[in-house]
Design brief:
Layout (H helix, E strand, L loop, with lengths): L2 H15 L31 H7 L4 H10 L9 H7 L5 H8 L10 H22 L5 H12 L1 H11 L21 H5 L1 H13 L2 H13 L14 H11 L6 E8 L7 E8 L2 E8 L2 H17 L47
Antiparallel strand pairs: 1-2, 2-3
Helix pairs in contact: 2-5, 6-7, 6-10, 6-11, 7-8, 8-10, 10-11, 12-13
């Protein structure tokens, strides 16, 4: 393929990436600024079709289809609410550049802030109630994995909200980082959560977060890492007033070969706390201590016994409050290797 053919193929590829927009709902098309008069004394600036397309509102049919697709047509009954939830605060400058005479559109800045707090509340109480022995640093990491910016952007992409997003890329400055597409896209689920809480109730917003975010499985085991799991296990055993842990060789094979395998169990009295294998006794003992810590930290409350504090809020104005029975308090958190300031 020659150089001319490669340039043509590149142009066609780039043109395919441009999102096509409907012009049926626009008052004027083509726009007057796109038409260059034949005789002008002062030439106009070149018309940027891609920037102009970004400044146009999505068609009302796309907004209505989005509300029905996520099952919130009865809540987001107005196209203006959906358009506000999909409008980032960075879009204001782009709107004023193309439409200086029109009023400033409503953005999702305040809604996203409120929704972010609500999502953090729902995720924190859900994880804390599900895993009562989880260390603080792992709890924070789990909350970020459930309702963090990247997760919100991914969920918004799955909802089909990317074509409805109105935003403008901003460069990196001394006071603020650069605004990228995932950052703007992540504000849509947060704004929708706030709108559900305002239009319906807090339990309805919690149900939305539970359906789209908290129902996803997160690998918490990979988040729990210890530099010295044997010492962390000793601290945990002392916290529960149990006997000092001891390692026992359970099985082995090929001790004098090139690939030996050892299976070590860690016991506190007669109770086995964990089990691990490895090519050396030290490795097997290390993994056994990790397994014992995982069995405690990842102890999960059964779903039918799970109770959340936000379940006491009424489902609608005037409805009675829900019942909530506080569970028994778990043992205090193990200080070693459990907080962000720990060296373990």
């Amino acid at each position: 393929m020659g150089h001319a053919q490669k340039r043509l193929a590149l142009k066609v590829k780039n043109a395919a990436k441009v999102t096509a927009i409907s012009t049926a709902h626009l008052p004027k098309f083509p726009p007057p600024e796109a038409i260059q008069p034949r005789k002008v004394e002062v030439p106009r600036a070149p018309f940027d079709a891609e920037t102009w397309a970004d400044a146009q509102p999505p068609p009302p049919s796309a907004l209505s289809a989005f509300a029905h697709r996520i099952g919130l047509a009865s809540v987001l009954h107005s196209s203006d609410l959906i358009l506000q939830a999909c409008t980032h605060s960075s879009f204001v400058s782009l709107h004023q550049l193309h439409f200086p005479d029109r009023p400033i559109p409503s953005t999702n800045a305040q809604l996203a802030t409120l929704g972010n707090s609500l999502m953090g509340l729902f995720a924190t109480e859900h994880i804390n109630a599900s895993y009562p022995y989880l260390p603080t640093r792992v709890l924070k990491a789990a909350v970020t994995a459930h309702v963090g910016p990247m997760t919100c952007a991914s969920v918004a992409q799955e909802m089909g909200a990317a074509p409805l997003l109105r935003w403008r890329r901003t460069p990196n400055t001394l006071t603020a980082p650069a605004l990228l597409h995932p950052d703007a896209l992540s504000t849509i689920p947060r704004a929708i959560t706030a709108l559900i809480a305002q239009q319906r109730s807090l339990p309805s917003a919690r149900q939305f977060v539970q359906t789209y975010f908290l129902s996803r499985e997160i690998d918490l085991r990979g988040m729990i890492k210890f530099r010295d799991p044997k010492f962390a296990l000793l601290e945990m055993v002392n916290k529960f007033n149990r006997q000092r842990p001891k390692s026992r060789l359970l099985r082995e094979t090929g001790r004098f070969s090139n690939s030996p395998v050892f299976v070590v169990g860690i016991y506190s009295g007669e109770d086995q706390l964990g089990e691990g294998f490895g090519s050396s006794l030290k490795m097997a003992e290390y993994r056994a201590a990790e397994d014992a810590l995982h069995r405690v930290y990842l102890t999960r409350t059964p779903s039918h016994l799970l109770q959340l504090p936000t379940s006491t809020f009424p489902s609608q104005p005037g409805a009675p409050e829900g019942r909530y029975s506080a569970p028994e308090l778990a043992a205090a958190e193990i200080q070693y290797a459990s907080s962000g300031k720990s060296t373990g």
